[in-house]
Amino acid sequence: MPTKNRAQSPEPLRSPLALLVLPFACGLATSRILPNDFTLGTSLFLVFTFLLTLCLLSIHRLDRPYGWNLAFPLFVVALGNFYGTSFAAPPNLPQPSFKPIREALFEIEPTQTFTSPPYAPDQVGLANVSGRDTLLYYSVPSLQGTILLEGFSYEVVGVERPLSEEMEAESFTEFLLSRGVSGRLRSFEPAQTIAVTRPAKALFAILLERAKSSLSLGSSLTEPATRVYKAIVLGQRTALDTQQKQVFRDTGTAHLFAISGLHIGLIGMLLFWLFGKAPIGQPVRVSCTLSILLFYVLLTGSTPSAVRAFLMIAFLVSAKAFARGYRPSSALMASAFVVLLFDPRQLFTLGFQLSYLVVFSILVFGIPLASRLMEQTDPEYWLPGDSGSPFHRSRKWLLGSFAISLSAFLGSSPLVMSNFGVLPLASIPLNIILIPLATAVLFTGFIALLFGLLGLDWIATLLNEVALPITELMTAIVAFTAKSPLAALPISWNNDWAGTAGVLMIVLSALWVSFQKEFRYRYLLFPFLSLLLSLGIGYL
CA 313, CA 262: separation in Å to the nearest integer? Predict the structure, then answer.
C-alpha cells in the first residue's frame, strides 16, 4: 500500500502588525463613541505617552517587560483616539432652521452618485455646497442624459428642505446624517457647469463614463445583463435596478460587484501573464502591472476593498523584489493601517468592515481548511490518476472554492445579518458556480474597456458580445436560486448590537487561531458560534 505523503500544515499566520493596527482601530472607535472633544483625545494621548516613556526608561531593569506590554497597547489606543478626533464629524448634525421655502442659487460639487441617467430621469447623490462644511442630498434633472461628475462644480437653482422631509426609510436618513448631510436639495432645472475644481478627480470621472460606454457597446444600456456586466467589471452598483440588487444581496453574491481581491488578483494575474510574453525585464513588467492596477483602482473609485487588494499585491511584489518573506496576514494589517491613516472614517463604513473581516476569515480559516481537505484526499494515497491530471486539478479547485466560500460566509454573516436583515444560505454553492463565470466576464470586460478607452470600439463590441451571454447565464442562475425557500432566511433583530458582538467574537477567535501551530477542524466552531451568538443576542 503506498505511503501517504502528508502535506505540511501551513505555518501560523502571526502578524506583529496586528498588535499595532487593532489597538489603533479601537482608539478610532472610541473617538466616535466618546464625546467628540479634542481636549479629551489630547489628554489621553499625553497621559499614555508619559506612561510609555516611563516603561521605556525602566525596561532594561525587567526580565519580562510587563509594563511595556500594558503601556504600548494603551498608548496606541490613545493615539488612535487622538488621531480620530481630528477627522470625525459630528454623527448627528442639528437640522438648520429653514426659512420659507423659495428657490435659490446653489454652487455644488458632487461627491457621490446614487442614481443617474439612463437608469433614472434625475441624478441623485451627495454634494458639497460652496460656503458650507456640510453636504446636501441633491436631486437634479439631467438634460439629454448629461451627468454631473465629480471634480466639477455646478450652478443649480433649486429648493432646500429639511432632510427628514419625504424620506422613504428612517435608516437611510440615519445614513445621510452620519455622512454629515444637513438637508436635501431639489432642482427642476438642469445644472450649469462652472469650472473644474479637482482636475485629477475630473479626469477619472470622464474616463469612467467612457469606460461605462465601452461596456455598453453592442447592447442596450438598460438591458439587465448589461447592468450586471458593468457592475462586475467597474463596481458600478448604481447600474443595477432595485430587484437585481435585492436578488444578489439575498443570495450572498453581491460581493461580485465590489472591486476587491477577486478583481484585483485576477486582473493582476492577467497582466503579469500578458507582460510575461513581452521581451521586457522583470522590473519593467512589475512596474507596468502595478501601474495599470493602480489606474483600475482609481478608475473604479478607490473603494476600501480595492485599495486593500492593491496594497497587498504591492507588498507581495515588493517582498519578492527585495528577497523578503511575505505573510498575507501582515500585508492585510499593513494595508488596513495605511487606509486608516489616510481616512480613519473608513473604519465605520460597511465596505471596509466586510472587506477586511472576510479576507481575515479566509486567511485564518479558509486557506488552512482547504489545505487540510486536500491533504486528506491526497491522490497518491487512494485517488486514481496523476496528481497533475485535470481530474485532480478540478478536485483542488472544488475543495479550495468550498473552503474559501464557507469561511467568507461565516466571516461576513454577522455584518450581513445586522445590515441587510438576511442570512444568505445559498451563497456557498452559488459562489462555487459563479466565480469561474465571473472570472471569464471580468477578464473579457477589462480588456474591452481598455480597448474602448483607446478608441477601438469595434474590438470592445466583439468582446462585449462574448461576455454578455455569460453574464445572462449568471443572472439566470442567481434568479433561479433566489426562488428557493431556503436560499435566504429573513432576519429581524431586536438588538442593534448583535452584529457587533458576532464580529468581535470572530476577530478574537481568529486572532487566537492564527497563532496556533496547526489548524484543526474544530477551530471552525468559533465562526459558527459567532453566527449563533449574533442570532441569539439579536432575538433576545
Answer: 12
Cell 508619559, located at residue: 50
Give the pLDDT of residue 446.
93
Compute the distance between CA of residue 101 and CA of residue 254 in angstroms, rounded to an integer.
40
Tell me the CA end-to-end span of the chain in Å, nearest whole number: 56
Contact indicator for 27, 82 with CB cutoff of 8 Å: yes
CA distance 357 to 366: 12
Q: For 355-399, how does the pLDDT look when each residue is reduced to its tens digit (9 = 90+)? A: 888 888 998 898 889 888 887 776 555 555 555 566 667 778 888
CA separation for the pair 227, 236 (Å, rounded): 8
- Residue 178's DSSP bridge partners are none
- For residue 160, what are the CA distances in angstroms to 43, 103, 123, 290? 40, 8, 16, 44
**Other CB atoms within 10 Å distance of the CB of residue 225:** 21
Over residues 158-202, the pLDDT tens digits come to 888 887 655 555 667 777 777 778 888 888 888 888 888 889 888
CA-closest candidate to residue 416, choices 296, 251, 181, 306: 251
Using alpha carbons only, give the angle 451, 455, 460 rounded to the nearest 5 degrees. Answer: 40
Beta bridge partners of 192: 155
Q: Are strands 181-187 and 135-141 parallel, antiparallel or unpaired?
A: parallel
What CA–CA distance (Å, rounded) separates 336 from 466? Answer: 37
Dihedral over alpha carbons 204, 205, 207, 212 (to 10 degrees)? 140
What sign does the dihedral 403-333-259-525 (CA atoms) show?
A: positive
**How many Cβ atoms from other residues are within 10 Å of residue 384's Cβ?**
8
The amino acid at residue 241 is D
Question: For residue 515, what is the DSSP state?
Answer: T
Burial 423-442 (b: 16+ CB within 10 A, else e): bbbbbbebbbbbbebbbebb
What does the pLDDT read at residue 296?
A: 92
Q: What are phi and psi of 138, to 5 degrees?
A: -110, 155
Cα 459 off chain centre by: 31
Residue with cell 480588456: 447
3-class DSSP state for residue 385? coil
CA pair distance 327, 13, nearest whole angstrom = 7
- Strand partners of residue 137: 126, 184
Instruction: Name the region of 134 (left: φ>0; alpha: ψ -120 to 50; beta: rest).
Output: beta
Strand residue runs (E) in 335-493: 422-423, 489-490
Calpha distance 276→262 (Å, rounded): 21
Render pLDDT for 217-252 as a digit per residue (tens, 0 to 9). Answer: 888 767 888 889 999 999 888 778 888 888 888 888
Share of residues in the chain with pLDDT > 70 (%):
80
CB 150 within 8 A of CB 111: yes
Residue 164 to residues 160, 188, 229, 340, 464, Cα–Cα distance (Å): 12, 20, 35, 31, 43
